[in-house]
Amino acid sequence: MKQKVAVLGAGSWGTALAMVLIENGHDVTIWGHHPEQITEINENHTNKRYLSDVQLPEELKATSELEVCVKDADAVLFVVPTKAIRNVAQKFVEVCHNQPVIIHASKGLEQETHKRISEILIEEIPENKRKDVVVLSGPSHAEEVAVKDVTTITAAAKNLENAEYVQKLFSNEYFRIYTNQDVIGVELGAALKNIIALGSGALHGLGYGDNARAAIMTRGLAEISRLGVAMGADPLTFIGLSGVGDLAVTCTSVHSRNWRAGDLLGKGQSLENVLENMGMIVEGVSTTKAAYELSRDLKIDMPITETIYKVIYENEEVNKVVKEIMLREHKSEQEF
Ligand SMILES: NC(=O)C1=CN([C@@H]2O[C@H](COP(=O)(O)OP(=O)(O)OC[C@H]3O[C@@H](n4cnc5c(N)ncnc54)[C@H](O)[C@@H]3O)[C@@H](O)[C@H]2O)C=CC1
Ligand SMILES: O=C(CO)COP(=O)(O)O
User: Fold this and answer.
1) Which residues contact 264 (CB under 8 A, 6 or more apart)?
2) pLDDT tier at 256 (50, 70, 90 boundaries)?
3) Which of 50, 135, 231, 292 is a Cys-bridge partner for 12, taking CB atoms 3.0 to 4.6 Å apart?
């Protein structure tokens, strides 16, 4: 059945997901806070800053008025950067007069509180203004989804029915959604892989090869799983789409902003310079701080995260840390 969907966030991922929903015959309005970008979407049917070569469907409506966007929506998709989620949720509560299914497709941890995005949304949106919070996550670069490349991702919710609603909303011949009930694992896999992607990019920028990439991905997955299990996730989730799947795509693709940022850091650029020139969100930077602090609080060994934290927040030289991490005390691979 045709659904009315509000997409909050007019960046690359919000725009690509809105295109999938239009393809599936839904009534979609996207909200952004830059009026000139809204005019561009409505009049030129492009969003060049975020999806440079893509022609948007004419049915896609855009507005800078949140109330107009969410009015009578059956589902509301939050897809702004993690640092904006709480503020956008607070604004949403002021203008929401019904009870939509809440979906989010962002990937990160709140820097100050270390909370997952669904926790923030549940905290900010009262029960009479939401049905559930469903997490949409997995290996999916906007640039490829926008040109209908084959993609598989996960819709996670405690209540299977709500995950199935989102599965049905988004699925089509190029976009296949699996359900999952491990919300914690799906959100942590999504957030933490960005840290490892920064590292994978940095190794590339420093001139290391495929062995190094396989090493950081595999040992990265080990530490993601350790923290995840300590926080209540099902370990099997980390071998699924939101775990190894997203880790693989983000650690190997030139589309990944986290990988590209790491690559430039490895080549010797300063973090400020890298972030300024990227012009899009690099979630791994703030997630590194949150994950590092969590690992210390929970006493979980996360050597890769700790190393990346030192490079980003303590000015350790990126070309020196590889030797340090390689020469750490010896371990068994079977130690969890
Ligand atoms: N780009 C991708 O391929 C994918 C991105 N994601 C996740 O989706 C989230 C959003 O990422 P992108 O769309 O790629 O980011 P982006 O950098 O392309 O766009 C972010 C958008 O959010 C807007 N924004 C920022 N702060 C805002 C605020 N306070 N209020 C309203 N709008 C605000 C910006 O103006 C921009 O339009 C991130 O958490 C990212 O990790 C997840 C899967 C794929
Ligand atoms: O999450 C993503 C792909 O699944 C996007 O990764 P980046 O934010 O690094 O571009």
Assistant:
1) 201, 205, 273, 274, 277
2) very high
3) 50
Domain ranges in the chain with CATH number 1.10.1040.10: 191-326
Give distance in angstroms: CA of 316 to centre of ligand 2.
25
Pocket test for ligand 1, best of 12, 40, 141 (most atoms within 8 A of CB): 12
Ligand 2 nearest-atom number relative to CA 194? 9
Q: What fold, for 4-181? A: Rossmann fold (3.40.50)
Instruction: Judge whether 323 counts as a catalytic residue.
Output: no
**CATH 3.40.50.720 residue ranges for the chain:** 4-181
Instruction: Output phi, psi for 147, to 5 deg.
Output: -105, 20
**What is the 140 CA–ligand 2 centroid distance (Å)?**
7
For ligand 2, whether the C-beta of 260 sits within 6 Å is no
Q: Ligand 2 within 6 A of 249 CB?
A: yes
CATH code of the region 191-326: 1.10.1040.10
Distance in angstroms between the alpha carbons of the first and the last residue of the chain? 46
- CB of 141 shorter than 6 A to ligand 2: yes
The DSSP code for 330 is P
**Tokens 């703030």 sit on residue:** 286
**Coil, helix or strand for 130?**
coil
The per-residue DSSP string of 268-305 comes to: T--HHHHHHHH-S--THHHHHHHHHHHHHHHT---HHH
Strands 151-156, 175-180: parallel, antiparallel or unpaired by DSSP?
parallel
Q: Which residue from 70, 80, 145 has its CB within 8 A of the most atoms of ligand 1, so it is best to mutate? A: 80
Question: Would you state the pLDDT for residue 246?
Answer: 98
pLDDT, tens digit, for every residue of 119-169? 999 999 999 999 989 999 999 999 999 999 999 999 999 999 999 999 999
